[in-house]
């Protein structure tokens, strides 16, 4: 098709199979071409992205504006257990929250978030709004319900803000 209008509504039935995770994601209904591209991109990502300076541009260009950022030494005792919890959260908040692991060796990002090696492990919810970054440190990071409550509160506020913007139009 020669039409390049990314805002034109089309009615796809899409199923993406994730071979590595042996799962799939499906969508049917109205989407624009741009929404289809974003769906495919977000659906093919691993459940947790590992940050490096090389891939930072790719990670932060993904069209998900709420990030759950976990800082830790990958060799620490609690790391493997927490990654399993983070995978559970990633699946529950699929395409709403991007989960990112930042190894302790990535000192520039630790510094940007004000994290010292002695503070690890550390967890933040980062929200990108109107060209600004809002960072919220999560206390008691090993309480998965605490994390889910924090994410749900931010997502609810985001939904309310979006509805208010629509009403003002």
Explained architecture:
Strand 2 and strand 3 form a beta hairpin. The chain starts with 8 loop residues before the first strand and ends with a helix. 37% of the residues lie in helices and 27% in strands. The chain has 169 residues and is of the alpha/beta class. The chain has helices at residues 33-44, 56-60, 79-92, 107-112, 144-168, and strands at residues 9-10, 13-18, 23-28, 31-32, 48-50, 66-72, 98-103, 122-129, 132-137. The protein is globular, with a radius of gyration of 18 Å. The protein contains five helices and nine strands; from the N terminus they run E-E-E-E-H-E-H-E-H-E-H-E-E-H. The strands form three sheets. A five-stranded mixed β-sheet has the order 5-7-6-8-9. The protein has a two-stranded antiparallel sheet with strand order 1-4. A two-stranded antiparallel ribbon has the order 2-3. 10% of the residues are buried.
């Amino acid at each position: 098709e020669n039409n390049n209008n990314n805002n034109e509504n089309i009615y796809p039935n899409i199923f993406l199979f994730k071979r590595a995770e042996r799962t799939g994601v499906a969508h049917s209904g109205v989407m624009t071409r741009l929404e289809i591209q974003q769906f495919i991109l977000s659906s093919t990502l691993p459940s947790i992205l590992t940050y490096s300076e090389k891939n930072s541009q790719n990670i932060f260009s993904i069209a998900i504006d709420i990030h759950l950022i976990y800082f830790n030494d990958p060799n620490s005792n609690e790391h493997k257990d927490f990654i399993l919890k983070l995978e559970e959260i990633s699946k529950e908040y699929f395409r709403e929250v991007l989960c990112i692991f930042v190894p302790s060796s990535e000192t520039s990002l630790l510094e940007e978030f004000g994290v010292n090696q002695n503070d690890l492990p550390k967890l933040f919810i980062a929200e990108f709004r109107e060209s600004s970054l809002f960072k919220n440190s999560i206390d008691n990071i090993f309480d998965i319900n605490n994390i889910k409550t924090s994410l749900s509160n931010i997502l609810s506020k985001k939904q309310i803000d979006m509805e208010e913007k629509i009403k003002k139009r």
